[in-house]
Each structure stands twice: as structure tokens, then as C-alpha cells.
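FYI - complex with MV4, inputs then prediction.
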Amino acid sequence: MFKKILIANRGEIAIRITRACRELGIGAVAVFSEADRTSLHVRLADEAYPIGPSPSRESYLRIDKLMDVARRADCDALHPGYGFLAENPELARACLAAGITFIGPTAEAMEQMGSKTAARQLARRAGVPTVPGVVEPIEGLEKASQLARDIGFPVLLKAVAGGGGKGMRLVTGEAELPAAWRDASSEALNAFGDPRLYIEKYLDRPRHIEIQILADQHGHIVYLGERECSVQRRHQKVIEEAPSPVMDATLRRAMGEAAVKLARAGGYTNAGTVEFLVDAARNFYFLEVNTRLQVEHPVTEAITGLDLVKLQVRIAAGEPMPFVQEDVTLRGHAIECRLYAEDPDNNFFPSPGTILARRVPSGPGIRLDDGVYPGWTVPTEYDPLLGKLIAWGADRGEALARMRRALEEYYVSGIRTNAGLFRRILTDPEFARGEIHTCWLDEWLKAPAAATESGFARSPRAAAGVAGTKSEHAGGRQGSVEDAALLAAALWHLSKNGSSSTAGSAAEKPESRWKLEGRRAQLDRAPGR
Ligand code: MV4
């Protein structure tokens, strides 16, 4: 087993990896940029080394600096976490050259999966269903036009180097193709330095369901069930859960076995995720492979009882898989909310700043993986993810109820967070029924009236939070008797409980909560209701 692992990351995931190291009796070595000098991941590690200025280009993305620290600190392995260099084959190569074990797949496996067309070719060869379309980059507009007619509109243009929806364009008819082609390829060139595109049949409102796989270096590959990740905003996951509400044992086995087949064909090792689109008829189509530990891995851990990071480390050290597929049993249901320092009522604008106070939820079925503490300033330089709140329950209903309860306990002051948004989503009837797809959240956010109605069912304590910050409540609408009554009730609540923490449970975004109450009151007065 390794003696010391360099953790080439920051924030909650660096802490998650440090925890695995501790449990395995392995030293955890942190790195930090200037902006992260006082960050929690630095404090919790055994050793910590500076790697340069705050911009990630000059610190967390510098392979030379990471390798330098790994050598100086005498590390025998490196864990890349997610983001930054996690899927960069050059880091895996540099590790190999320095005699340091990269905790992840080989550079070759990462390269193959990095090209979306190469991954599609691999899937086709392995007999894994792909969306109808091409597996080679398209040469030019004329060729694209002919292919689009063959496939049949609507089609999607996608970037060969793609990811995150960049360089992707929906084309509903021939006439739109030239402009879409130009836009998509210049966007792809900008984002990835590679303008090449391919083309797929467009699926209407599919779900995003991904299979977690684990492969050791001795040819044993298992799948650890799926994660439903359809609740996304602009291609960013917001809520994930496991199992998927649409899954059954037959489909799970079919998708799991497809994922394993693909991994085997690609010579894949360590933890990975095979993403699929699933249509309304529950046909599944391979989308892409993520060659890293994912943000949402805890929901899989919650329902399998496995520790994915420890398994990654043990597999990288050459140990055989400690169990077989038949041993993998899924128990209960888990859901994860990504807590961000951002303002949902101001176009999700990042809200960095100093955290003044924080109350962490706990109790049955609750896990909080975060990387912050009161007095710490959320840096402006990086993704403003504060952490992840995970709820487990015996079934989906219990998991959702526990998540709602935990979100009410959660309180942060000094910065805005998206916790209030989760409180609203989690009371939405469609969400509660699991009727979600990849466009669901973007549409939900565009329909404030629907969100309002579904977002009403909240506790009296949440209402107290509304008045806890009185200044912004008017929000451009007329005051009313209802407002006055609500305000009085909330103030009474506050005075009775005294401390600001009581009001805090829902206080990050008072303005919208006022609007919610007000709109609901108006709806109640409307004729016919
Ligand atoms: C699609 C699709 C519909 N049809 N491909 C978006 C990002 C990229 N990874 C793949 N994406 C999609 N590909 C076909 N043929 C719809 C999406 C899509 C999506 C996929 C996963 C998660 C969220 C999404 C949001 C919008 C569109």
C-alpha cells in the first residue's frame, strides 16, 4: 500500500480524499494556491505545499509544480479528484514517468474517452447502443447536410472534443444548418481548440442516467448501479439521486452490463462513469465516459455501502476487487444537493465572500461533504461549490423528507447560497413524482408561477426566515394584509426564539421567499380556486 498520496485538488473533494487516506493509514499531502492558504483542505491534511498564485492556470493546472511537490514530499501516488487535471492524460503520463502511481485509468484510456467520436466508435464495436448518427468527425457543411437528411431532422451537432454542451447546436431543419454549423464549430474551437463536429439524431427530453463502474488491474469489472442526474441547469448538475426513479432490475442489468462491456473494450481501470441518455420508452443510448471520480459519487456510496475513494486507492495499488458483481446490493435511496455560493434570484451569480456563521445539518441519514468554515472567505477564483448535502432513506420518500428536513437545518450567513432553491425544488409535485428530464430544471426556472405554487409547502420556521431579513421584501409588489400578518407572525417567532439562528434556516434569499408567500396569497384569493 502507498505511504503518502498527493492530493492534486482543493475544497470538499480534497477533504474527501484526505479522509480516505486517514482511514487507510496513508499520509495525505495537500497543495494550495495563494487564495487557498487558509482553506480547510490545507488544515486537514498531514502536510501542505504552496503551488503558486490564485489563478488555477498558475497553480492547480500546473503539472510541473504538482510533480515537484510529489517528489519533494516523497509521495508514491497522486489522486487528481475531479475537475482541474483529473481527466488530463498528460498528468497520468507525468506520474508514470516520475514513478508515482496515478489513481485513475491509464493515459491511453483517458485519451480514447476524451474524444467523443472515438468513444462512440468504441461503443459501437463493443455492441453498446449509441444515438443514431455518425462516429467520425464530419468534413464540412455539405457532408453535414447530406448526413442530416439521412438521419432525419431534428439533429444535434456536437463537438468531437465536446463536453458541457459547448459546441452543441440543435438543428430542426435544413435551413438552419449553415448558421448552426458555423456557430457550433467556432464555439468548439474557442472552448477546446478543436473545431471538428459530428452529428446525432436529437432525442426529445431524455433523462441523463449514468452507471458507476469499478475496474481493477486484473480484469475484474463491476457496475455499482446508476445515478439519475437529469436535474441540471445549463449542463451543470444540480441534484443527483440513486437509484433512478425509472429504473428496474432488468434495465439496470442491461445498462450495467453495457457499461462493463465498454470498459472492458477500452482497457479501462479504476473508477469511471458511463453516461447514457434514456428516452421516454426507456431505450438507452451511450453518451460518454467520465474517467474520474465524480462529484455525485456519495449517492452511490450511500446505497451500496462502499467507499469509492478507498476502493480507487486499493485498485491503484494493484489489489484485486474485494467483491464480485453478485455481492453488490443496493439498499434504500439517496439524493444529493450541490450547495453553491451563488444567488438563484440574481441569475445564479456567484456570491463569494466571508462566511460569518454556519449551522450544519445532521441526524439520521444525513451526510454533508463540504470544505468551508465560519470566518473563511469563499475565493472568487474557483467554482463556488461549498459542498454537497446527501440524504439517505429506506425509500425515495424518506430520502426526500430527510433532505427537506436537513435543508431547513442548514444555515449560512455572510454569503448567498442556493439552499432556498433546493427547498423549492424538493416540494415540487413533478419532482416528487420523479417526472424529470434533462430540460426539466431550465423549464422550471423559466416558469416562476409554477415554481411558486409548488414551492409553497413550507414550515412555519421557513416563514420566519422570510421576515428575518426585512429589508427587501416589498420586491416591487403591493403590500397586503397577508404580508402584514406574515410579518407579524414571523417577528413574533423571532422574538420568541431570540437568536438569529432560528430565523436563519431559510434566510439566504429573503426576497424571493416573500414573493412566494405573496403570490400564493394572491392565488388563494383568485376566483375559481
Ligand atoms: C443529447 C441530447 C439529446 N439528443 N444528444 C448535453 C451535453 C452533452 N454531454 C450531451 N447533451 C445532450 N445530448 C442527443 N442526441 C440532449 C443533451 C442534453 C443534456 C444531456 C445530459 C444532461 C443534460 C442535458 C441538457 C440538455 C441537453
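Confidence is low (pLDDT under 50) at residues 451-483, 489-529. Residues 131, 156, 165, 168, 200-203, 206, 208, 232, 235, 277, 287, 438-439 surround MV4 (CB under 6 Å).
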